[in-house]
Each structure stands twice: as C-alpha cells, then as structure tokens.
Amino acid sequence: MVIRVESAPFDFTTEAGAFGAGRHDIGAIVTFCGIVRDLTGDLQAMQIEHYPGMTERALMKIEAEATARWQLADSLIIHRFGLMRPGETIMMVATAAAHRADAFAAAEFLMDYLKSRAPFWKKEQSRGGETWVAAKAEDEAALTRW
Amino acid sequence: MVIRVESAPFDFTTEAGAFGAGRHDIGAIVTFCGIVRDLTGDLQAMQIEHYPGMTERALMKIEAEATARWQLADSLIIHRFGLMRPGETIMMVATAAAHRADAFAAAEFLMDYLKSRAPFWKKEQSRGGETWVAAKAEDEAALTRW
Amino acid sequence: MINVLYFAWLRERIGVASEQVETQAKTVADLVAELCARDERYAVAFEDLGALRVALDQDLAEFDAPLAGVREVAFFPPMTGG
Amino acid sequence: MINVLYFAWLRERIGVASEQVETQAKTVADLVAELCARDERYAVAFEDLGALRVALDQDLAEFDAPLAGVREVAFFPPMTGG
Fold first, then answer.
1. Looking at domain A2-129, which CATH architecture does it have?
2. Which residue of B has its CA nearest to C10?
3. Which residue of chain A comes nearest to B18, CA vs CA?
C-alpha cells in the first residue's frame, strides 16, 4: 500500500513492472494510468494544484476504504502536481488481488473517489488563455454506485 | 487493436509501456494482467491448452464487440498457451480511451468474455497430480451484466 | 467426412485430439449419439452434455444445431481463459 | 486565530493563498459572512457557496459545521483529480 504525491514525472512502465513483482499470491493486477490528453491540439500544458497534507490524508482514507472493502494483496497510488505537457502521465493507480473482480472493483473505486474527493485542481493552458477544469456531474454521480 | 496468442513469455512492463505511447488523444489507459497464482505453495506449473484458429477468431469477435460498444482509441489482448510457472504472466488486456469509464468498462468486458468464451483450458500440476481447472459459475454469471 | 476435435479432459478421456468421422448425422446431438454407440470411451466422455460445449467451424453452437455444410466440429469442457 | 487557505480559482479571485484570521465565528458559514463583509473580493468569490467546498483541519466538512477547536479552514472549488 503505497501513496506518492509528487511533482516529478514518473515512469508508468517502471512502476507497473515493479508492482506485485515476485509475489505468488497475486492472480490479477489492474492498472489505471491518467494522461494529459489534447483532443484538439490546442492544449499547451496542464497545471495541477493540490492541498499539501490534505491530499495525502484523503488518499490514505480512500485507499484504506478500498482495502477494507475488497481482498487486496497490494495497492499503489501515484499522483503528480505542477506543470505537465500533453501525453505526459498525470497519475496512476494499481491494484493486486487473488481474483480479478476485486482488483477491478478496487481500481475503479480508487479512481472514482480520487476524482472528486482528493484535493487536486486542474488548469488548462492553451494559446487562448488559462481555464480551470470544471468538475463533472458524472464524476460526482459515479460515487453513488459504491 | 492487436491480438496475440503465443506460447513464449512476454514482458507485461514492455507491452504496457508501448501501448498508447506517443498519442495525445488518450486520457485513460487500463491494463489487466493475469498471473499464475499459487496461494498454497503446492502448484508446480500451469498448462494452458487452446484451440488454434478458433482462439484468434473468438478474441477478434470479443474485441470487435468492445470497440463497437465503447469509445476506444486502442486495445490489446495477449494470451499465452503452454507451460507456465507460478508468478509468470498468463495474459494481459489493455484499453485506451479519452475517458476512464470507457477504458474500464471495455477492459472488464474483454476479461469477462475472454474467461468464458475464448477456447482456453487450464490444467494445474502439483505434487499431488494434475487437475483441470473447472469453470466457475460466477464467471458465466459475469456475462449477464453486459 | 467431418473433422472432429476434442480438447482438455475430453481429449484425454477419448484418447485422441482429432479424427475424421464418416457420418450422416443431421445434428450435433445425432453425431454424439453415433460416437457413443461406437465405443464405451465416447459414452463415458459424453455422459453429461451439460458439462460440455461444442463449436461448429470454430463458432460456439448448441447441441441441436444442424451439421449440414459443417467441416469441423469441436467438443470441449467450459472454457477457462484469462 | 484560524489559518484560512484558498485554492484554485478561489485563491486567484481572493488574491492570497492563505491568511491568519482573527474570528469569533461559530460556524463555517459565519466565517464566510465575516470575510464577505470585510471586502468585496470575498463577497464575489463566495457568491455561490454551492460551487464551493470546505475542509476543516484537512477533512471535508459542511458549511454549517462548527469551528470550535478548528485550526485550519480551507475553501476551494469541487476537486478535479485523476
């Protein structure tokens, strides 16, 4: 159970490869990787602000809740803050379990809560200016399924 | 959209790293990795038999169905056959999408169908002998949610 | 002539992975009945059809499906991929 | 004395990231009312409380929550992590 909140870029491949390595009690690993996307080609950068202290606290609570609900062998949350370019990795979640249903459910739960309950705010910078990304009603609604 | 059915070991880390690399229209990547687990320490190896020809055909149908149902930028299925040791990677699925809900749903759909509709059969070899792994009612039931 | 394939424990019980079968069977169930009448090994292996699956020319099918035009029939237990 | 923090566009509108506030406010809503009375910038920023969230000592809370014993209050828009 590892939580990292950091500004430096991280390598998803390296992290995914190290996660659960060498263990024989794991049958299923699910990873989620969030990437700065730029559908229109206008985005220059994304700036992520966070609330130091509360961020780690919120992520720990979310991870503890997932561990209480599902049979997990391990879990990992990495979330960056600061400036990122299109195509760069913003964050990742990984879950390991004996069975795939636990790994999938826990990964989706972590993502849903992390979206709306961890204190991060995204601002997009394009040639036209800067815009704070608005929270989506569907992200808040996603929490009701748990 | 890539499907590979092969006996040689593959490196999940390398495959996950190459998947979706360099694209700016992808916001979410979900991967699933299935590993030979050995909860009791008794398992010596797992032997996976498949139906050459039908396997590729079944996986292509499943992947086409996922692509029709969700907005996917890319998808990947790799499944091994032959002899594997505990801790070795059996198979992986990866999905890439602009939004996480599509990536998660498609990955779970691919896994659910691949479990019960792709012609693979697992046999466990332990000191006590060889046993064919029985299909689980819960895996068949999982299909009803789609 | 139909090519008949067997997989997993069904292959082990019948003792061959595939065989060419000369048959006039109209459906999969008719073919199974012919095989069972031929040898005790088949009768034992096909005892519980509910525990078996069938594919016709590499597509899953039902046991009452017609065999007309089919070149390859495969019998096997429920699949355990993933 | 309570340490008050602002994030994202709320921080930009108010013009500071944090400040020490001398207050006798009983609830978060009371504190907001005090701030709004102090300066137009606050009144504009806090115009729609439904679009804002509050955390007391780094735990999410409601606007009617009591401030007794609280050392750090943070105001921010809905979070957009992930």
1. Alpha-Beta Complex (3.90)
2. B132
3. A13
Contacts across the A-D interface (CB distance below 8 Å)? 67
- pLDDT by 10s per residue, chain D, length 82: 999 999 999 999 999 999 999 999 999 999 999 999 999 999 999 999 999 999 999 999 999 999 999 999 999 999 999 9
**3-class SS letters over D33-62:** HHHHHHCHHHHHHCCCHHHCEEEECCEEEC
Q: List Cα–Cα distances, D61 to A56, A115, D11, D55, in angstroms.
A: 17, 17, 19, 5
B16 contact partners, CB below 8 Å, separation of at least 6: A12, A13, A16, A17, A31, B31, B33, B92, B94
Q: What are phi and psi of C46, to 5 degrees?
A: -95, 15
Angle in degrees, 0-180, between the axes of helices A100-117 and B100-117, rounded to the nearest 10? 170
Is there a contact between B50 and B119 (Cβ–Cβ < 8 Å)? Answer: yes
Q: What are the extents of the domains in chain A?
A: 2-129
Is C2 an 8 Å CB contact of chain B? no
Contacts of B38 in chain A (CB under 8 A): 24-25
Residue D4: strand, helix, or coil: strand
Among partner residues C9, C58, C78, which is closest to B54 by beta-carbon distance?
C58
Q: Which residue of A has its CA nearest to B26?
A: A37
Instruction: Record the pTM.
Output: 0.95
Mention the CATH class of domain D2-76: alpha beta
Residues 35-94 of A with CB under 8 A from B: 35-39, 41, 86-87
Distances (CA, A) of A125 to A41, A93, A132, B37: 12, 25, 9, 46
- Domain extents for chain D? 2-76
